[in-house]
Every structure is written in C-alpha cells, then in structure tokens.
Amino acid sequence: MPNYRFLQVDVFTDQAFGGNPLAVFPEADGLTTTQMQRIAQEMNLSETTFVFPPDSPDADFTVRIFTPESEMPFAGHPVVGTVWTLAHLGKITLQAPQTAVRLSLRVGLRGAALHVSPDGHVDQVVMDHQPPEFYATASTDQAAQLARALGLPPDAVLDTGWPVQVVSTGIRQLFIPVRSLAEVQSLSTKQQDTAIMTRLCAAIDPETHCQNCLMVFCVETEDLDADVHTRMFAPGLGVNEDPATGSASGGLGAYLVHNGVVDATPPTTHLLAEQGLEINRPSRIHIEVDGTPDAISMVRVAGEAVPLIEGVMRW
Predict the structure, then answer these.
(1) pTM of whole model > 0.85?
(2) Domain architecture of the chain: domains with CATH
(3) Active site (catalytic) residues
C-alpha cells in the first residue's frame, strides 16, 4: 500500500488558524484523477493540490488543484501555498532576494516569485495571473435579484453605481459591489438562496457560469491599511464561504482599477484585500495591477503561509 505525504498550511496569513487552509501532496506521482478527487473529498478543504514532475521543459513542477467537488484549472491560494510548501520542503533552491518558479497548471504555465530574506526565509510568494478579460455585466434586474438571493435589499448593490461583472485573470468569477461594510458583514450562508445564485450565474455568463463563484466586496474596511473588504461564496463547488481567494482577488484588483473604484497609480497599483474575518479566519491578500484602467497588462497576487499539519495518507 503506497504512502503519500501531505502538509496542511494556512495561506494568506502569518498566523496559524488564519487564512485559507490548503492540503499539499508534494509527491503525488502515481495517483489517478479519481484518487485525487477522492482525497480532496476526504481532506474536505476548499482545495487540495497534487504536485508532479514537470510535463513541460519550461516548467519546474506540474500542479493539479481539486475542490471537494471538482478539479480547478487555476486558483490563487493553492498556488501560493503549494509554492511556499515546496520551498519549505527544500524542493526549490532559494536565492535571495528573489527566486522564480514556473508551474504547469490546467490553464498553462504560470510564474511565481519567492521573496527571500538574506537569512533564507521566504517572506512572500507572488503569483502571476494573466491579463484580465472583462465579460458580461448583470442587468439592473439581475443585480437586484442577486442582492435578494444574498440576503440584501437591492439598493445595497445598486446604490454603489458600479457594475456586477464577470472578470477573469485565469478563471471567470462574478464580482458584486455592496455599499457598506455592515451589509457585507451581515451576509449569512444560511439566509442565501443558492439556487437563485446558481441560476443567475448561468444567465449572466452562459459559457462558464462564472464557475459559480461570487465575490462580494465593499471599499469600507475593518483594517485601515486595507483597500477592500471581501467575501467569497462558491456553493456550486462545495465551498459555502472561502476565507481567502487568490484567484478572485486578482480579478477583483483588475475590476477595481478598470472601473475606477480605486485610483490607479501606474505603472503598478498596489492594493490590500481583507477577507475571512466573518468566519474567524482573517486573511490579507496583496494585489498588484500593472498598467492603466483601460490597458491592464498584468495582475499579481501575493501572500504568506504558515505550516500547521504534516501526515501520511495510505492508499
């Protein structure tokens, strides 16, 4: 019976029990897709990653990402956490001040940079997204229906004057502005109509249904250093609420700059998102947006990780 080592790390935090937990299987060679899906169900985290030898001469590692329900082509905290874990295990040769790594993902090659202190400590992992693509915006009626499905009055969304819009920096997701922090904090998954949310994702974005991922945000924050407060709901992926979502944070950064929600500061706009506070897993996600509102050339997301659990799964 083969043994597969795994580590569980908390991502986008510098403290244990914060951020978003991730299980990483750093030596997954031999596992089938069916086995990986069953392991992800057993781990029961928002995502589990499996690391294989590179399948391309341009890659350092091949990484596959699974939620409890399905495989994901791209996701943020799994990439940041996996790269951090590989460095922690000595599988990446670190050089200060920065070490570059390239991963083969289901969306293709993606780069990541490890910021390394002189003593060899990884201070931060910065992952590349792809240049943003801006897709459909919800009609006024659809935005109002989404607000009600989330448990908010329609004006909570409509009064912002900003669009409910599908954006992708790797995968399509739906971004929903809300006028106040109190209203974002009031959201409860127990009060949401997930059937309507899923139906509206399909209506707004018939091709991918926005991956059934909805990020709600406001520009009022708890931490004065933060620029945006977010919550992510993905019931269609088996994740009621995600405490830290790197993929969506990249899309959100592009949305904020493109729609003039924040003032752009070319060549690079730096933003800090806070997430997970309502579910007692505080997370801090750094976002970099290169370019101008009408010509965004690159988006990056960065964060830290903390090791928590190490074990062996016997298959």
Answers:
(1) yes
(2) 3-129+304-314 (3.10.310.10), 133-301 (3.10.310.10)
(3) 47
